[in-house]
Amino acid sequence: MKKYSLIAAIWWGGVAFLSGCSKEAEADGMGRADFACLPDIAVEEMTRATAQLPIEVPAAADFKLTVANADGSYFEEYEHFRDYDQPLMKNGEYVATFSLGDPDAENSTAYCFEGSTAFKVTANRTTPVTVCPKLTNSAVRLSTTEWFDNYYSSAEFTVTTASGNSFHFTPTSGQTIFVKAGTTLKLKGSAVKAQNGVEVTFPEHTIGTAAASALHTITVDASKAGGGVLILSLGTEEDMIEVAPVEIELNPEA
């Protein structure tokens, strides 16, 4: 019995040895990539050099990952980065792309991020690769000046995009919306004159185009020259627009 046991042990050891050689042969000329996805919420603001988006940094695990080479012979897609398991890849040049969000969506949580990095896989090595996705659509918020707040009360505004989506703002709402890059923005509103209680409306006007990868602050001011003329800006003095208020007749048939 002992003799046969020894022979069996040698046989299975031989199989294990041959199997190990096979794996070494399979890995020859192959390498791996170890990705780090570091979302960057810093964006260009029209009135400053940079600003931080008022959101939490998106979780890297939720990003979609695609890995491809130049000739198209290799393409792998992972709906979630958490599913990436560092498979063996042939020695060569690749591009990794991380993306998150729907670029056609518009709402307060519809931010879109994307970033790509070229890298090289080296045989029998694990290559560290860092990708820093950035905002690709546009962020928009609204702010009123102190002068406007002193001149008007109960102000409400509606911002409408070229896709027909409308968003409600007040001077204290503090919300940020995310819209398609390149979309046209229109604004209308209403308020009450603080000095006499007269209700007014501000007819809808086109105020500008949302730039990609940017944070726009719609600034609403009132003219100091009198009359409460609305002064709108999407970020620079060059794009300022004046909108005259229209008083609401409480008894139009009287």
Short description:
It is built from two helices and 20 strands.
Walk me through this protein's architecture.
With 254 residues, the chain is mainly β. The chain folds into two domains: 31-135, Immunoglobulin-like; 138-247, Immunoglobulin-like (Sandwich). It is built from two helices and 20 strands. The strands form four sheets. Strands 2, 3, 11, 14, 17, 18 and 19 form a seven-stranded mixed β-sheet that branches. It has a five-stranded antiparallel β-sheet with strand order 5-4-7-8-10, with no helix packed on it. Strands 13-12-15-16-20 form a five-stranded antiparallel β-sheet. It starts with a helix and ends in a 7-residue tail after the last strand.
Helices and strands in order:
Layout: H1 2-27, E1 30-37, E2 42-45, E3 48-52, E4 64-69, E5 75-78, E6 89-90, E7 92-100, E8 113-121, E9 126-131, E10 134-135, E11 138-144, H2 146-151, E12 152-161, E13 166-169, E14 176-179, E15 184-193, E16 199-209, E17 214-222, E18 230-233, E19 241-243, E20 246-247
Parallel strand pairs: 1-9, 2-17, 11-17
Antiparallel strand pairs: 1-6, 2-3, 4-5, 4-7, 7-8, 8-10, 11-14, 12-13, 12-15, 15-16, 16-20, 17-18, 18-19
What key attributes describe this structure?
254 residues; mainly beta; Immunoglobulin-like; 2 domains; seven-stranded mixed beta sheet; five-stranded antiparallel beta sheet; 2 helices; 47% strand; disordered N terminus
Fold-level CATH name of the largest domain: Immunoglobulin-like
**SSE topology string:** HEEEEEEEEEEEHEEEEEEEEE
SS elements, strand count: 20
Oligomer: single chain
How many domains? The number is: 2
CATH class of the largest domain: Mainly Beta
Number of helices: 2
